[in-house]
Give the backbone structure.
Amino acid sequence: MRPWTAVTASAATSAEPPPTWTVVGDRGDAVVLADLDPDARELRRVQIAAVDLPGVVAERERSNPARWVWHDSAQRYPPLLDAGVRVARCHDLRLARRILAGNPHVADGTDLRRDDVWSDTPATPVLANGETLFDLGAPGGGSSTIEETLAEFARQRRALRSTRAGTGLHLLVAAESAGALIACEMHAAGLPWDETRHGDVLVSELGPRPAPGTRPVRLEDLASRLRAQLEAPGLNPDSPVQLLRALQRQGLPVGSTGRWELAGLRHPAVPTVLEYKRLARLWAANGWAWLDEWVRQGRFRPVYIPAGVVTGRWASAGGGALQIPRGLRVAVRADPGWRLVVADVAQLEPRVLCAMSRDMALADAARGRDLYEGIVAGGAVTNRDDAKIAMLGAMYGATTGESGRLVPRLRRAYPRAMGLVDAAARRGEDGESVATLLGRTSPEPDGAWVRAQSRASEADAREDEVVRARRSARERGRFTRNFVVQGTAAEWALSWLADLRMRLASMPEGRVLAPGSGPVFARRAHIAFFLHDEVIVHCPEEQAHEVVGAVRAAANTAGRLLFGDFPLDFPLDARATRTAAKD
C-alpha cells in the first residue's frame, strides 16, 4: 500500500488529470481520494477536508472525469448536487454488491456474502422536522473508511472478472450505478408542481379545506347518503368492516369492499360507495396534508430508491412518487420559458418478453403498431381486450377465468415467448432461481418453503401439507415467471434513462432560469420524473424538439444494447407540453 499523501484542496485540483477510477472514502472527519489506474492499481491518495470535496470533484469533472467509486450514491451525491456539482459516472458499491453477492454467474464472489458494513441494507432516508430534508446514513449503519471502500471495490472487481461469458453483469452494474445518480438528481431538481392548480382540483373534488379532524364537505355528503341508502345511521364508511356488514345486510353477496367486487352489483349504494372510496383516497394520499409536506417552492421532491424491488424496479420513500393520480397531473406544469417532454413506452413488458425470447411471430405482431392489435390480426384471439388479458395472464401466471382460457391460444401462436415464461415458472416451482437478461437473480426460497416442499414429498405427509406445498410452489412459479420479464424491463428502462441522461448533459444551457430546479439544473434540461415506463424531462423551451429526439434516440439505443439486432421497436408516445395532463 502506498504511503499517505496529505495535500490541500488547491494542490489536489492542480495535479495531473485523474486516472480511470477515483475511490472516495473517509478518514475521521476528512475525505480520502484514492486514484487507481484502469487495472485498479493504486497510484496515489490525497486527503482533503470534507468541505473541500465539491470543489475537488468539480475540478476533476472539468479536466478529465474519472468514474467515482463510493459506498452509496444516496449519501455521497446529494451534498455535491447541493453545491452545484454534477458527476458523469460512478460505481455504487452498495447497489453493485446486491447484484453480485450470491449471483450464480459469479465464480469468485464468496467473500461478497459476508455480513459487514457492505450488507445490502440500503441507506434509509429519514424525514427531519417535517421537512423534505433527509439524513442518509452509511450502508448498514456503519462507516465507510477508505480501506473498507478499497477492499470492497477489489472484491467486486474480482467478482466481475470471474463472471461467466455471455452474462451482462458488467452492464447491469454500470446501469444500476447510473440509476443511483439519476435518482439523486431527480430529488435535487424536483418535479415542477403547481400548488394552486393542485389546490383547485382538491376544492373542485372535495370542497373547501376542512378543519383538522373533520371530513371535507363532499365526503361528508356522500357519507350521509350512504347511511340513508344502507339504512345504517351510525355507519362510518372509512371502516371496511362496518361498510361490508352494511352492504351484506342489504342482501349484497360481497366478501370485500373492493372496487372490482362492487362494480358489477345493482344497488343504489354501490355508485355512492365507489365515489366515496375514490375521493377518500384522493384526500388521504394527495390531499392538503400531502401538499403541505411534499411540495416546496414549486417542486415535488420524492425520494427514489433504485432497485427497491427485488426485480430491479424502483420504489420510493414516501410521497407516493410512483403513482401520480391522473386528475392531479394538471399540477405537473413547466416553469415559464420551459417545457415538459412526457414520454411513455407502449406495452413495455410484453415487448421485452418478445425480444428476450426472440419470438419472430410475436415481433411481427408488435412491429410498428399496437402489440395487442397485432395479436388479434394474427388470429390468436378475436379482440384487443382478450389479447391484453391473455398476455398479462401469461406473464403473471393466471390459470383460471378468462386468462386461463386464453393463454393456451398464445402458447400455440407464440411458442418461444410462452416457452420462456413457462420454463421460468417451472424453475421457480422446483425451488430454483431465475435470472433477467443481464443477470439479476431472483431470491432463493427461504428455509420454511424448502422444508415444506420436502415434507410434502415424504410418504407419510398429510393431505393438507401436500396441498399447501403445491400451492406455495405454484405461487413461487408465478413470481419467477414474472421476475424474468419485469426485471429485464427494468434493465431496459435503466439503460434508456442512463443514455438519455448523457444526451441531456451534452446540451447547452438554456436562456431562462428555473431557480426551483437547484444549482445544477436551473438552466439545463434534466430528467424530472421516472415511473417504470414513463419519463418526464423538464427542459428550456427552445430545446423541447431536440429533447423529444433525444428521448426517442435513447430508447432505440437501449433496445440495441440489450437485444442487439432483433427486429423489434419500442414505440414511444413523446410530446412537448406545458403540463403532464393527457388530453
